[in-house]
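Researcher: Following up on the earlier apo prediction. This time include the ligand. It's zinc ion, with the SMILES given after the sequence.
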Amino acid sequence: MQELQKRALVFAPHPDDAEIGMGATIVKMLSEGWEVVIAELTNGEPTPAGSPEMRLAERDAATAIMGVKERICLGLPNRYLQVNLEYTRTIAEAIRKYRPHIIFITYRPDAHPDHVHGGELVEDARFTAKLSKTTMLYEPWWTPKLLYYYSNHLRVNIEPSFLLDVSAFWQKKLDAISAYRSQFWDKYAAEPAKAGAVLESITAQGRYLGSRINVQYAEPFFCHDLIGLNQLGSLAGI
Ligand SMILES: [Zn+2]
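Model: Understood. Below is the ligand-bound prediction.
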């Protein structure tokens, strides 16, 4: 019997959100044979630091570090994402094209409107993607699971639905984030103490969450549905 090709579609409001929130999980999924496609809703431009060309080169470098084969940008407007039918259809067509088993988007609430509206758009698109008798491209598709990852502009205590052990893939995540030099290093040319501080903060969070499940590093995920198990061994790490 042919084994099922497991597919994931990771939506990101901007380049770097996927790496910050679930970079290690992406590498872990690839190592387990998942097909992982990253789809940015916007190209993240304009932004205080860098240029469109630089942002694209950094994004491509991060993609190569993680080993992701396909990454697309849906070209929606950075800073001005709004929930409307046009953008919903654009995202729904990406879901219909890639037919994922899990889709991911940033967790809400968030202080960044693109993250808030991006999340709403992906939720709407998940449903819209299954509609028949439409003019949308590709065949209808319903994605069984929608998960939220934590790349967020609020500083809150989070209560994830579950934590994933990503200890073996943590360094790859840091390497991928480090590709975004314009955003986390060059931007702080006048404040050297802040350059690269993102790595320390992300590592502190990953280490803390890892300690909650007795592993070195973990990434948090959120789900509105109850999480079902088909075997109990993973609860005991066996
Ligand atoms: Zn973002």
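Model: The chain is about 35% helix and 15% strand.
Researcher: Noted. I'll compare it with the apo version next.
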